[in-house]
């Protein structure tokens, strides 16, 4: 039997964050932190392949948090859990596959880290650490265990540094994350795009979108309102600023009044204003989150038919190419 050859781990970069107002504290020694506390909102790291899975290409999608009722320190991604089950069934071959997946994921994390895409790199660091911890648990080779523990400690420390940097940006009102939705991409329904930012304290929402006019655009806004009603936030007021459709003004007003009346049955007030000069699209929550979508809420393609997949479930509906910019500010401006 050939001796075990350690994989080539990438070197996690030293902190290269913008300098804060006061000198940044020295980088701490390897912290004894639990991997699942690194990032409360986890998702699979795009751009990596896993045994029995698929390779995702292109831009990283929005981070998705699990429902708050199921979020806990021991939360593990579906991917990691399924890999663990596969590993137990496949024995040494499963461990080797898990090892490759873990190394590939941390390589992706380092690439994103170097590119200053810190939020995405944090997700990949966390997932990669989780996979490598499973390898350590499964192996009986002490030299191998020692090697992996060293690298895991390094990646944990870097991930913790990134997490602190992101939190500071949020506190300073400088946080910015950009999500690129590619042409014909799927999996970008409203719940998956916004759920991370709809915390329990959200009670007021502002929507500025000039194109809540045609029938399909009105349905988009209705679906957005349905998402707010379902929670976990406790929205009480929604402010809509849009433009008036001169061609079918009465139909637009009737539809919006219908949405307003329906929302009132759930204890939600909808205020509607019209502007002839509005152009920018923007959605704001009173917890400080601000989301700017290049195409507003109307970034879904027309379904192929009324009985085609994706007609009802927007997660399955192909999208137009657009960009989503997410900011966090200390104060939400009023309209």
From TrEMBL:
Residues covered by region (Disordered): 1-26, 44-93
CC per GO annotation: membrane; midbody
Gene Ontology molecular function, alphabetical: identical protein binding; phosphatidylinositol binding; protein domain specific binding
Biased composition (Low complexity): 80-92
Basic residues compositional bias, start-end: 67-79
A Pfam family annotated for this UniProt entry: MIT_C
Occurrences of domain MIT (ranges): 95-171
Gene3D superfamilies named in the record: MITD, C-terminal phospholipase D-like domain (3.30.870.30), Phosphotransferase system, lactose/cellobiose-type IIA subunit (1.20.58.80)
Protein's UniProt name: Microtubule interacting and trafficking domain containing 1
The organism of origin for this protein: Taeniopygia guttata
Gene assigned in the entry: MITD1
């Amino acid at each position: 039997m050939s001796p075990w050859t350690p994989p080539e781990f990438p070197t996690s970069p030293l902190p290269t964050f913008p300098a804060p107002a006061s000198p940044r504290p020295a980088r701490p020694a390897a912290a004894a932190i639990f991997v699942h506390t690194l990032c409360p909102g986890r998702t699979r790291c795009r751009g990596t392949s896993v045994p029995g899975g698929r390779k995702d290409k292109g831009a990283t999608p929005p981070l998705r948090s699990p429902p708050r009722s199921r979020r806990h320190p021991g939360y593990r991604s579906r991917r990691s859990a399924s890999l663990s089950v596969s590993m137990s069934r496949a024995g040494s071959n499963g461990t080797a596959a898990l090892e490759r997946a873990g190394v590939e994921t941390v390589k992706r994390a380092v690439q994103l880290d170097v590119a200053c895409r810190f939020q995405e790199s944090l997700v990949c660091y966390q997932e990669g650490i989780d996979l490598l911890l499973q390898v350590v648990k499964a192996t009986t080779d002490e030299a191998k265990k020692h090697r992996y523990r060293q690298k895991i400690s390094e990646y944990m420390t870097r991930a913790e540094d990134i997490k602190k940097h992101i939190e500071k940006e949020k506190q300073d009102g400088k946080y910015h994350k950009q999500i690129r939705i590619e042409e014909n991409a799927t999996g970008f329904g409203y719940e998956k795009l916004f759920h991370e930012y709809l915390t329990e304290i959200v009670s007021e929402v502002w929507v500025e979108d000039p194109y809540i006019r045609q029938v399909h655009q009105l349905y988009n806004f209705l679906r957005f309102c349905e998402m707010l009603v379902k929670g976990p936030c406790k929205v009480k007021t929604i402010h809509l600023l849009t433009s008036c459709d001169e061609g079918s003004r009465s139909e637009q007003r009737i539809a919006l009044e219908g949405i307003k009346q329906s929302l009132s049955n759930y204890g939600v007030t909808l205020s509607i204003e019209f502007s002839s000069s509005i152009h920018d699209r923007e959605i704001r929550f009173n917890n400080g989150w601000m989301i700017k979508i290049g195409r507003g809420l109307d970034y879904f393609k027309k379904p192929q038919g009324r009985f085609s997949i994706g007609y009802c479930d927007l997660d399955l509906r192909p999208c137009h190419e657009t960009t989503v910019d997410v900011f966090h500010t200390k104060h939400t401006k009023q309209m």
